[in-house]
Design brief:
The chain is about 5% helix and about 40% strand. The protein is mainly beta.
């Protein structure tokens, strides 16, 4: 009898943090993979295999007491050696800032303008957190995706203005903008202005935060072609003086009736930053790593003093999680 196994997906990342006290005195390394071909004349050609390096750490130097040793043994067993990946706080590089002043003892405090993570195009509303490492003269740089931001530390700004209409995925580092202004929960009326324009009307002051040129999303209006509702993205052509209505362009057959009133309809600004707007962020972050060994050598050196050797951690790519 032939048996076809069913492979169930195993979640290879555990949302837990490597013990803080053991990480001190660790050795961190940045490793690229570069092929170098040397010809007879002595000239070499170099090809980089990786666009992003892997971080590597040796945490054995942080084990100083029996408490440290037992904590490391417990964590190593729970992670099943190399099986699971987890979060590690790099003591040398864990924020969106870089120490640039002479004799700096630490990186500066973070701010929403630390790192540029994108430029608005009026359509894109998801941005990956990144950190850029430039040369002193700015001639060359390397941009690092940040996949594991620290909860409660992320700040976002658009063109230097701090924003709150966003969420961040702590497992991927993706910032998702949400509509900044929403009008709902009232009887909004949709009326056909002419063959190319429609007007949505509410109470006076309903659209006080909306401006000409804003992209808006209309949700919940009856369709003009079938018994469904319309979700449409349009551009505001004008705003009434009392801020009670918006005029926008749309085909005359978009909506089902010459005049439609529905209490469940929603009018909201498009979440994407406007074209040319600079999207920046500040944050602290963890590095997703795993043990690079399945064997944990430990020893008891003196009474109450334990130590370990060759305890390597290696960064994991998102596909490996």
């Amino acid at each position: 009898m032939y048996y076809t196994p069913t492979f169930e997906w195993i979640d290879m990342f555990v949302d837990t943090l490597f013990p803080y006290d053991i990480r001190y005195n660790s050795i961190g390394s940045i490793r690229f993979q570069t092929d170098v071909a040397l010809v007879d004349s002595g000239v070499d050609q170099r090809i980089s295999r990786w666009d992003q390096p892997l971080m590597e750490y040796d945490v054995a130097y942080g084990v100083r007491t029996m408490e440290h040793l037992h904590g490391l043994q417990s964590f190593f067993r729970a992670m099943r050696g190399r099986l699971y990946s987890f979060k590690y706080l790099d003591p040398m590089d864990n924020s969106s800032t870089l120490a640039v002043k002479t004799e700096a003892r630490a990186a500066p405090a973070t701010s929403p303008m630390d790192q540029t993570i994108g430029t608005g195009d009026a359509s894109t509303y998801r941005f990956q957190l990144t950190k850029t490492y430039p040369t002193p003269d700015g001639a060359l740089s390397q941009t690092r995706p940040i996949y594991k931001p620290k909860q409660g530390t992320v700040m976002v700004a658009v063109n230097g203005v701090v924003k709150t209409n966003w969420t961040v995925d702590l497992m991927t580092g993706v910032v998702t903008f949400t509509p900044e202004f929403v009008v709902t929960g009232q009887a909004l009326v949709m009326s056909k202005e002419n063959t190319t324009q429609w007007r949505v009307t509410g109470a006076a002051g309903s659209f006080i935060d909306f401006k000409v040129g804003d992209k808006i999303v209309l949700t919940g209006w009856p369709s003009g072609s079938n018994n469904t509702t319309v979700k449409d993205t349009v551009t505001v052509a004008s705003v009434s003086v009392d801020k009670s209505s918006l005029l926008f362009n749309a085909p005359a057959t978009t909506y089902g009736f010459a005049e439609t009133s529905t209490p469940t309809a929603i009018v909201e600004t498009h979440p994407a930053p406007k074209t040319g707007a600079l999207v920046t962020a500040g944050f602290n972050f963890f590095v997703p790593v795993r043990f690079d060994v399945d064997r944990l050598p430990t020893t008891l050196e003196e009474y109450g003093i334990g130590s370990a050797s060759d305890v390597k951690l290696v960064e994991v790519r998102p596909e490996e999680e």
